[in-house]
C-alpha cells in the first residue's frame, strides 16, 4: 500500500478545480447562459450574483480536490494513468452532475429538459478533463515509490 502524497493531491485538486471552473463558465455562463437566465426567471429568481459565482468556484475547487483524492484512492487497484483518471471523473460526474440533474429534470421539474440535458452531457466532458488534468499533477510520494520497489 502506498502513502497518499497530500501536497500533490491538493495541488492536483486545485488544477482540476480550475479546469472545472473554467469549463463550467464556458458551458453554463457563455454557451447556456441565456437558457439559465430564462430558467432562473421562470423560478422568480434574478441573475447570478457575485457571491453565488464565488460559491460555484469554491464548489469547483472542492470537487477538483475530491476527484484527485478519488483518483489516488483507486489508483492502487486500477493503476496510474488516464484510464483511471477518467473513471474518477465519471464517478464525480455521476454523483455531482447526473444524479442532481436528473432530480431537477424528472422529479422536481425545476428547469427545462433541454437545458438539463445539455448541461448534464457537457458535465461528462468537464469532469473527465478535470480529472485528467488533476491526475497528471498527482504523483505518489518518492518515499512510497522507494518502499514499493524495496518490497518487490
What does this molecule look like?
The chain starts with 5 loop residues before the first helix and ends with a helix. The chain is an all-alpha fold and 152 residues long. Helix 3 packs across helix 5 (113-137). 26% of the residues are buried. The radius of gyration is 18 Å and the shape is elongated. The chain is built from six helices and no strands.
Total E-strand runs? 0
Strand content: under 5%
- Which structural class do the helices and strands define? mainly alpha
Low-pLDDT runs of 5+ residues are: none
Compute the number of helices: 6
Q: Describe the sheet with the most strands.
A: none
* Average pLDDT score: 91
How large is the radius of gyration? 18 Å
Name the helicity range: over 70%
Given the C-alpha coordinates, what overall shape results? Answer: elongated
Amino acid at each position: 500500500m502506498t502513502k497518499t502524497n497530500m501536497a500533490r493531491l491538493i495541488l492536483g485538486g486545485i488544477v482540476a478545480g480550475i479546469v472545472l471552473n473554467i469549463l463550467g463558465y464556458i458551458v453554463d455562463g457563455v454557451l447556456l447562459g441565456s437558457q439559465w437566465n430564462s430558467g432562473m426567471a421562470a423560478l422568480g429568481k434574478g441573475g447570478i450574483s457575485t457571491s453565488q459565482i464565488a460559491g460555484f468556484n469554491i464548489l469547483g475547487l472542492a470537487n477538483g480536490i475530491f476527484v484527485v483524492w478519488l483518483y489516488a484512492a483507486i489508483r492502487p487497484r486500477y493503476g496510474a494513468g488516464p484510464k483511471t483518471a477518467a473513471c474518477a471523473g465519471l464517478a464525480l460526474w455521476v454523483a455531482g452532475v447526473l444524479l442532481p440533474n436528473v432530480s431537477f429534470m424528472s422529479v422536481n421539474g425545476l428547469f427545462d429538459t433541454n437545458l438539463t440535458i445539455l448541461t448534464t452531457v457537457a458535465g461528462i466532458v468537464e469532469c473527465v478533463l478535470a480529472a485528467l488534468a488533476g491526475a497528471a499533477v498527482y504523483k505518489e510520494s518518492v518515499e512510497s515509490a522507494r518502499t514499493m520497489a524495496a518490497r518487490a
